[in-house]
Amino acid sequence: MGLYHIRTFGCQMNEHDSEILAGVLERMGYDPVADVDKADIILLNTCCVRETAENKVFSYLGRLRSQKAKNPELIIGVCGCMPQQKGMASRIRHLFPHVDLVFGTHNLHRLEEHLTRITGAREPVVEIWSSPGSITEGLPIKRKAGISAWVTIMYGCNNYCTYCIVPYVRGRERSRRPIEIIAEVTALGKNGFKEITLLGQNVNSYGKDLEEKKYDFAELLKRLEEIEGIKRIRYMTSHPRDFNDRLIRTIASSSKVCEQFHLPVQAGSNKILKKMNRGYTREDYFNLVDKIKAVLPHSTITTDIMVGFPGETDDDFEQTLDLVRQVRFDSAYTFIYNTRPGTPASKMAGQVPEEVKKQRIQTLIRLQNGISLEKNRESVGSTEEILVEGKKVKDEFLLCGRNRGGKMVFFPGKESLISHIVPVNVKKAHLTYLVGCRV
Ligand code: SAH
Ligand code: SF4
Ligand code: F3S
């Protein structure tokens, strides 16, 4: 029927949506192609969390202009979070008339109908739903064959952090029914998958909108724990505000839920946290970290941090640095605050000059890199359980896999170990990975 190429921008949620887009295309008879020049359909699954993400999409679309001129039969589609913003779909069509198809996050399941319309009438299709319909189950998913799979447990976000565009482009929180999630994970276990990562913008809110009231995130974890074949359970992202004691206890007593806590803190100053509408103080955050370390002392704790939020003074930033020094994160994703149209923070006074933001992020990265390396060095000599994912790229003799904390570890070994969990002794630490040997 033809060849498709999907280019994904943004978070795991988008990566997983692209697996569904690929599933729908393959059900229609299309085959994947790595070389974009050979494709008959090109889909760009987009992100708009920061302007840099949008600019990447714009420049990619610009480059496709000549490909479309050479091959007028080529279908170019733009979907995902970006066109979900007000006025963006028409802006894309106006700037890039070679785009044939624009759709958003709420009607992803209608890809087949869209393509049938385009190939039939040869006219562009633009369809954006302003709000989500009910959850569509049973869509085909083209997962990369293997060991680890993403499983969506909920869509959307109700938190409305004042800087963030996600709630506007992903809609209100909607939890998938437990029965659907359990069925999907059971099938994954039967098909040889060893690890699942549960996806949602705030997985701790899971179940709040369900009729089955007793089902919260902790309950879901308990049920998924029982599923045969699955050896490891991860999840992202969890909101520090909603991480309760019951959840910590559930994770501590589970043998499958990994000791990896990604708890985006965003800032270390209470004034800024309040302006961000995060719903916790730095003291609450320290408390949470202490509780986790008390029950699971060897946990990996990672975070997201933003610098340059409106009104952030040198003193506020110093408090972020202080928090980073006290918590000693294993690693952190660091971002420069970027104004997103329509968000409350975009109208706040005290926007921080770009120069100051750049200096702050460099200071923060330098501090965090030092801590990351120190923490990795602390694991030298320990024996870790590694789920072997494959061979190291460009190195025939090294295998790669993650420890329970989620850190990448390389070690020499035979290919037959792939998909098994093996003990590895850590010999050497680097900034972003460890090197070891089998024991
Ligand atoms: N739901 C998740 C992740 C959302 S987006 C959470 O709440 O943690 C991932 C990260 O992007 C956020 O944690 C935040 O640090 C960053 N981010 C979101 N909006 C941003 C903005 N306007 N400018 C810069 N970084 C932003
Ligand atoms: Fe954005 Fe906040 Fe929701 Fe995360 S919790 S997606 S940062 S609004
Ligand atoms: Fe980006 Fe959408 Fe994810 S805006 S970060 S792809 S939810």
Structural account:
- With 439 residues, this protein is of the alpha/beta class.
- It has 4 domains: 2-127, Methylthiotransferase, N-terminal domain (Rossmann fold), CATH 3.40.50.12160; 143-258, Transcription Regulator spoIIAA, CATH 3.30.750.210; 261-378, Transcription Regulator spoIIAA (2-Layer Sandwich); 383-438, OB fold (Dihydrolipoamide Acetyltransferase, E2P) (Beta Barrel).
- It is 34% helix and 22% strand.
- A 6-stranded parallel beta sheet has the order 2-1-3-4-5-6, with helices on both faces. A 5-stranded mixed beta barrel has the order 15-16-17-19-18. A 3-stranded parallel beta sheet has the order 7-10-11, sandwiched between helices.
- A hairpin with a 5-residue loop joins strand 16 (398-402) and strand 17 (408-412).
- Helix 7 runs parallel beside helix 8 (245-253) and helix 11 (314-327) runs parallel beside helix 12 (354-378).
- Bound molecules: S-adenosyl-L-homocysteine, iron/sulfur cluster and FE3-S4 cluster.
- S-adenosyl-L-homocysteine is lined by residues 49-50, 163-164, 166, 201-202, 237, 239, 264, 266, 304, 306, 335, 337-338, 340.
- S-adenosyl-L-homocysteine (SAH) binds next to strand 13.
